[in-house]
């Protein structure tokens, strides 16, 4: 086992690994539970399994002055995800809140939506021996303050995606120690190697309107009143 770990560490140290990996287990589904980006310049990747219970993944950043954040959105190279096309929403101040989202936007902020052009580029990660489609990558200007990077599928379908930020590679001693775990977790996420015994079946989830839209829906009391008025009107005709 020690020999295997040593080989993994050597490969990790010499590979073209660009992002320090982290994994979502469904706990980053809202602004208050967002995964915290400690430094937007340092490259990290957050892997997320999209489910009906956790359709959106949130990352939180804070910058002292206006800057640009490098973002990437990818999907594991798995046959059933060949047409899976999630999007990124950068939530920050200074944006008009006119973008349709499956979540409620924090007060005072708006959403800048970033979508794939339809073209995909293949990405091979040598350390984990996994492949992905990169749907988009760009530098997004953001103002000073707290903001969020979100990702979801606009069609409400389950699947898998990853969000990466930053371009500067930075690893410490603890990272080298975690490398073997990263290897196994990343390959499991990409369903590489043996893969799951039964291939998962993706599904369409019921579309949930954001709270801001729900607020304009009539209450059950108003609906009952309208129904009674309709009955009374019919009787008077």
Detailed description of the structure:
Helices cover 22% and strands 31% of the residues. It is α+β, with helices and mostly antiparallel strands. The chain has a single domain, classed as Jelly Rolls. α1 crosses α2.
Secondary-structure blueprint of this entry?
Blueprint: H1 2-14, E1 20-23, E2 35-36, E3 44-50, E4 57-63, E5 67-76, E6 87-92, E7 110-114, E8 121-125, E9 130-142, E10 145-152, E11 159-165, H2 173-189, H3 211-214, H4 220-236
Parallel strand pairs: 1-3, 2-4
Antiparallel strand pairs: 3-11, 4-10, 5-9, 5-11, 6-7, 6-10, 8-9
Q: Structural class from helices and strands?
A: alpha+beta
pLDDT < 50 stretches? 1-17, 211-237
Q: What number of domains?
A: 1
In angstroms, what separates the terminal alpha carbons?
A: 86 Å
- The residue fraction in helices comes out at 10-25%
Determine the strand fraction and express it as a percent band: 25-35%
Largest sheet, described in full?
6 strands, mixed
Widest β-sheet, arrangement of strands: 1-3-11-5-9-8
- CATH structural class: Mainly Beta
- Please tell me how large the radius of gyration is: 22 Å
So, CATH architecture?
Sandwich
SS elements, strand count: 11
Q: In one word, what is the shape?
A: globular
pLDDT averaged residue by residue: 80
CATH topology: Jelly Rolls
Task: Tag the structure with descriptive keywords.
237 residues; alpha+beta; Jelly Rolls; 6-stranded mixed beta sheet; 5-stranded mixed beta sheet; 31% strand; disordered N terminus
């Amino acid at each position: 086992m020690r020999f295997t770990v040593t080989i993994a560490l050597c490969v990790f140290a010499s590979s073209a690994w660009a992002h320090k990996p982290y994994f979502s287990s469904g706990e980053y589904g809202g602004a208050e539970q967002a995964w915290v980006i400690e430094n937007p310049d340092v490259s990290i990747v957050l892997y997320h399994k999209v489910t009906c219970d956790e359709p959106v993944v949130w990352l939180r950043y804070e910058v002292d002055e206006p800057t640009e954040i490098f973002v990437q959105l990818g999907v594991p190279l798995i046959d059933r995800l060949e047409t899976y096309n999630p999007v990124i929403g950068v939530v920050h101040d200074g944006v008009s809140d006119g973008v349709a989202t499956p979540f409620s936007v924090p007060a005072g902020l708006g959403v800048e939506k970033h979508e794939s052009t339809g073209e995909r580029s293949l990405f091979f990660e040598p350390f984990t021996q996994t492949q992905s489609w990169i749907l988009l990558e760009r530098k997004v200007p953001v103002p000073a303050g707290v903001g969020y990077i979100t990702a979801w599928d606009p069609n409400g379908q389950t699947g898998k995606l990853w969000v990466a930020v930053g371009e500067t590679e930075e690893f410490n001693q603890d990272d080298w120690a975690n490398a073997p775990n990263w290897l196994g977790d990343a390959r499991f996420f990409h369903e590489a190697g043996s893969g799951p015994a039964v291939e998962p079946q993706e599904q369409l989830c019921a579309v949930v309107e954001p709270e801001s839209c729900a607020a304009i829906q009539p209450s059950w009391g108003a609906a009952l009143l309208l129904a009674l008025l309709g009955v009374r009107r019919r009787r008077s005709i």
